[in-house]
Predict the 3D structure of the following.
Amino acid sequence: MKKVLVTGALGQLGESLHLKGYVTIETDIIHDETKKNYAILDISNEEQVKHLLDSEKPDIIVHLAAMTNVDGCELNPDQAQMINVQGTVNLLNHFDGKFVLISSDYVFDGEDGPYSEEDEVNPINIYGQTKLDAEGKVRELSNNWIIIRTNVVWNIGGDYKASFADWVVEELKNNRKIRIVEDQWNNPAWTVDLSRVIEQLIQFDAKGVYHYGSADILNRYEFACLIANVYELNDSLIEPITTKELNQPAKRPLKCGLKTDKIKKDFNILPSKTHLDIKEAKMHTIQ
Ligand SMILES: NC(=O)c1ccc[n+]([C@@H]2O[C@H](COP(=O)([O-])OP(=O)(O)OC[C@H]3O[C@@H](n4cnc5c(N)ncnc54)[C@H](OP(=O)(O)O)[C@@H]3O)[C@@H](O)[C@H]2O)c1
């Protein structure tokens, strides 16, 4: 059986990623005594990376670890560079198997989305720039790679509690008003569905850049209302606002989202429907 090493395995996407038919070594920056086949790995520490890769000798790396706080990256660009770019280089310097990078629609400027794999990149914030630079390092330093660009990764009810969708459910359940932007467009990817796609691309031995998100381009307000409706919560508590009103440190690409024609054409992988994903997530939560 091939061995897969996953970085950032304790994150939102990592906790849904259970690759069938592989021996998996999960890693993240903190200790986790509850997990088997788990190792601590700070990707920004090249010595630690070298040591672990030399001892585990994985065939495949699924690289999820990143500094994902978009405003945090804007305020701490050196740290974002160290984790998102240099961390990727550190892995590639000591590995020559198949490398799978999860990247983002934030490599685009959001003027004219949704975007295909051929569209011109033009990041407008530090997070997007570091993800693009990491993509560049993968192309330069690996000869067997997949870059999977995705967007608005969400889950509800997992161990990872910092997600947008969890927050929406929690606030509405407690009858609290929330303000959500109605001018940022994406096709959100459910962690469970995205994990299935990552597994399929590895099994197909895909190579190159692939975009994946759901079949529905929604603005964030519409997405929150959809969650409220499926969870039978009061959507009148959700107030639509504009991105400008939030006055955040990092600029946001507004008209984003990812076209999925290539992954459909090459592998017959079809995008999921967001309302069905939310229904399924709700069933998982209740069980
Ligand atoms: N979330 C989205 O909407 C989205 C959209 C497009 C692409 N992506 C990409 O998808 C991937 C997974 O995203 P996610 O939502 O699962 O992110 P996440 O929840 O923030 O998970 C990332 C994990 O990496 C860990 N990490 C941070 N610095 C590290 C380091 N130096 N060494 C090792 N691990 C480190 C984080 O730990 P801490 O939590 O302790 O920092 C966290 O457990 C990321 O590469 C992200 O850029 C995400």
Notes: The two ends are 32 Å apart (CA to CA). The domain at 3-154+186-214 is CATH 3.40.50.720 (Rossmann fold).
